[in-house]
Write a structure and sequence with these properties.
single chain, alpha+beta, Glutamine Phosphoribosylpyrophosphate, subunit 1, domain 1, five-stranded antiparallel beta sheet, 12 strands, about 35% strand
């Protein structure tokens, strides 16, 4: 299970992800970053679903000339990769019941501002499957904490992820990482680490 959180602000877009890959039984298989910078288009891509989906989405988006081009093709990127990467995960014994989802966030040259796009292979409230939607805030899986524009991406994002981590049967753990895309740079740092050892079940 990947925790995926995003905040779009006037000067940057912030993406928070957790840091473990787990098996179907919730056992920690390995630690891994789940947000990959796309330096050539000044963006970051993050995914939920099989771990291999991130690499395939990163390659697909990275082959586009601009962030906006990658965003235009995001629905097709998910369609082309979701089923194939789920099959790979199942063959490797790390099958996931969660939906395949892609978040692409970066600096839009077309609009001159930070933008984030989200697409899921399943229908969500107000969102059809495989429909690319512009977002201004995101918490997937959802929590009881409402997303508001005055939230601090680091402080409140970590609070939301702690809430996600505390939900039963949601293996969120390892660490909370924030990746931020500005007009002229990409920054990333770890906000908090958790004692989730490889081979162990995660503890809230």
């Amino acid at each position: 299970m990947t925790a995926l959180i995003a905040f779009v602000r006037e000067d940057a877009v912030h993406v928070l992800t957790d840091g473990v890959a787990s098996g179907v039984d919730g056992q920690v298989l390995f630690h891994v970053h789940k947000a990959m910078p796309l330096s050539n288009v000044n963006a970051v891509v993050a995914t939920r679903g099989p771990a291999s989906l991130l690499t395939s989405a990163w390659l697909s988006c990275g082959h586009r000339a601009t962030f906006d081009d990658a965003a235009d093709d995001l629905g097709e990127t998910l369609k082309a990769n979701a089923a194939a990467q789920r099959a790979v995960a199942e063959r490797n014994g790390i099958a996931s019941a969660e939906a395949c989802e892609i978040l692409l966030a970066g600096w839009s040259e077309r609009e001159g501002q930070p933008v984030a796009w989200f697409v899921s292979e399943i229908e969500r409230p107000g969102l059809a499957a495989f429909t690319v939607t512009r977002i201004y805030g995101l918490a997937s899986p959802e929590t009881d904490i409402p997303l508001t524009h005055d939230m601090d991406p680091a402080t409140d994002g970590l609070r939301i992820m702690r809430e996600q981590r505390g939900c039963p049967d949601l293996p969120v753990g390892g660490f909370c990482q924030i990746t931020t895309v500005y007009r002229d740079r990409i920054e990333t740092r770890i906000l908090e680490r958790w004692p989730d050892g490889v081979g162990e079940r995660m503890e809230a």
